[in-house]
Design brief:
Elements (H helix, E strand, L loop, with lengths): L1 E9 L10 E9 L1 E6 L19 E6 L6 E8 L4 E9 L3 E7 L4 E9 L2 E16 L5 E15 L6
Antiparallel strand pairs: 1-2, 3-4, 3-10, 4-5, 5-6, 6-7, 7-8, 8-9, 9-10
């Protein structure tokens, strides 16, 4: 989402080649972006199963001004998921992303330009071997951390 601020908007009302005019004051990106050294989709690499590709980025729309908003999770290989975030008590935030295959939840505290907390991913569509060799649902949990980064660095 982008905020465009203009001034001196003039509507020309005539049958001519005149166009409406305005003076541009500023264009502001209403998002904050954070870079994690790990995948934001699956956490750190494991010995078996589904892997994310670090680093990962989180883009939070209307953050921190609002108490909720849209978000995007993206790994360096281009895999991405849309998400929603909601502010919780004590400067904490819950971010949820899901599709037909996986559900990701990241809970974090906000401190200046850093995010720190935990992430989980669960999928009953992907199976991974347990330590016994038996296959079971993909389940991950990890310590999450990220630092603020320019939003154009997520490409």
């Amino acid at each position: 989402m982008v905020e465009v601020v203009i001034d001196q908007f003039v509507i020309h009302r005539s049958f001519s080649d005149d166009v409406n005019t305005a003076r541009l004051i500023r264009i502001s990106d209403l998002a904050r972006c954070y870079r994690s050294p790990q995948s934001v989709l699956f956490g750190p690499a494991t010995r078996t199963g589904q892997q994310g590709r670090p680093p990962g980025w989180i883009r939070l729309e209307r953050f921190p001004e609002s108490d909720h908003g849209e978000a995007e999770l993206r790994d360096s290989d281009g895999k991405a998921m849309r998400a929603r975030w909601i502010r919780q008590p004590n400067d904490s935030v819950t971010l949820l992303a899901s599709n037909d295959f996986v559900r990701i939840e990241i809970r974090f505290l906000v401190s200046k330009r850093n995010l720190a907390g935990s992430g989980t991913a669960h999928s009953d569509a992907a199976l991974e071997p347990e330590f016994t060799g038996r296959l079971s649902d993909l389940r991950r949990s990890w310590k999450f951390s990220a630092i603020e980064a320019p939003c154009n660095s997520t490409q």
